[in-house]
Design a protein that fits this description.
two-stranded antiparallel ribbon; Rossmann fold
Length: about 280
C-alpha cells in the first residue's frame, strides 16, 4: 500500500452489532456486522502558486492549478479516501489566503497551506538583481524585503493562520515552507546569477521558512519543512526540481517541476503525521 494511502485511507466503517434476542425456545443470539461505506476525508488546499501546482504542467486554469500539484497528488494517492478542493491561486499573499478561507467550514478535516513568499516578492528581487545594470534597484528591493521579513510578515502569517483555524476549527492544519532556490555549488551553468546573489536568495528563503515555522508554532498547527527533500535539487544542481530561467517568460521560474511536487512536496507532507493531533 503506497504511503499516502496508509496515512489517508482512514477506515471509518462502523460495524453495528445487532443481537437477536433469544426466547426460551429460540436459537442462541447471532451477531450481525453491518459495514458502513468509508467517508472521504474533507480536504481543502489553500495558498499560492506552489500549492496550485503552477509550473508543474501546462494549464488553462486562471489560478494556475494543475493535477501535478501536491494537493491533487495527495487526493489521487488516497484512492478515494480524500475529497479535495483546491482554493489556492498563483500570486496569492497571506491576505489572499484569508479570503480563500471562505472555502473552509466545520466539516473540513484537513487543510494545507503554502503562502508567504509573495508577501516578500522574492521572485521580483531575484529578477531585478539578475540585471547587472540594476544594482541600485537590487539593493533597494533587498532592504525593503528585510523590513517586511522582520516586521510585517510574522504579523501577517499569524493573521492568516488564525483565520484558517477559526474557519475550520475541527481540521488538521498543515503549513509548508519553501525549497531553497539554489543548490550549493561554485559553478552554476545555465543560470547567470552571481554566487553572492545565490547565497543571498537562499538566506532569504531560510528566514522566510523560519518565520512560517514560528507562526505555525504560535497557532498550534503543523509545519512541514521541504528544504531537506530539495537539498540536492535546487537550481545549479545536476537534476533541478525547480523551473530555471527558461520559465522567466511565463512566470514559471523557481516553481517546482512535476518531479519537485511529486518527490519534494508530496513525501514531506504525507509523512508529516496528518492524522495526528497538533
Amino acid at each position: 500500500m503506497p504511503y499516502p494511502t496508509a496515512i489517508y485511507q482512514r477506515v471509518v466503517a462502523v460495524c453495528a452489532t445487532v443481537a437477536l434476542t433469544a426466547t426460551a425456545w429460540a436459537a442462541p443470539a447471532t451477531a450481525v456486522a453491518v459495514a458502513v461505506a468509508p467517508t472521504p476525508l474533507q480536504y481543502v488546499a489553500l495558498g499560492d502558486s506552489y500549492a496550485a501546482g503552477f509550473g508543474a504542467e501546462p494549464t488553462n486554469d486562471p489560478c494556475g492549478r494543475t493535477s501535478a500539484g501536491y494537493p491533487a497528488l495527495l487526493a489521487r494517492e488516497a484512492h478515494g479516501g480524500i475529497s479535495m478542493r483546491n482554493a489556492a491561486c498563483a500570486g496569492a499573499t497571506t491576505a489572499d489566503v484569508i479570503r480563500q478561507a471562505s472555502a473552509l467550514s466545520r466539516r473540513t478535516q484537513l487543510v494545507t497551506v503554502t503562502a508567504g513568499a509573495n508577501d516578500l516578492q522574492v521572485k521580483q528581487l531575484l529578477t531585478t538583481c539578475i540585471n547587472r545594470f540594476a544594482a541600485v534597484a537590487c539593493q533597494n528591493d533587498a532592504l525593503a524585503l528585510d523590513r517586511r521579513l522582520t516586521a510585517a510578515l510574522p504579523r501577517d502569517l499569524n493573521r492568516m493562520l488564525h483565520a484558517v483555524t477559526t474557519a475550520a476549527p475541527e481540521a488538521r492544519v498543515v503549513i509548508t515552507g519553501y525549497p531553497l532556490p539554489f543548490a550549493r555549488s561554485r559553478q552554476c551553468p545555465g543560470v547567470p546569477v552571481a554566487a553572492r546573489l545565490r547565497t543571498r536568495a537562499n538566506q532569504v528563503v531560510t528566514r522566510l521558512n523560519a518565520a512560517i515555522a514560528a507562526a505555525a508554532a504560535r497557532n498550534r498547527v503543523r509545519y512541514v519543512d521541504v528544504e531537506p527533500g530539495f537539498a540536492r535539487h535546487g537550481l545549479c544542481s545536476r537534476k533541478p526540481w525547480l523551473v530555471g530561467l527558461e520559465g522567466l517568460r511565463d512566470n514559471r521560474v523557481l516553481h517546482p517541476t512535476a518531479t519537485g511536487q511529486a518527490r519534494g512536496y508530496l513525501p514531506a507532507i504525507a509523512g508529516s503525521g496528518l492524522t495526528d493531533r497538533a
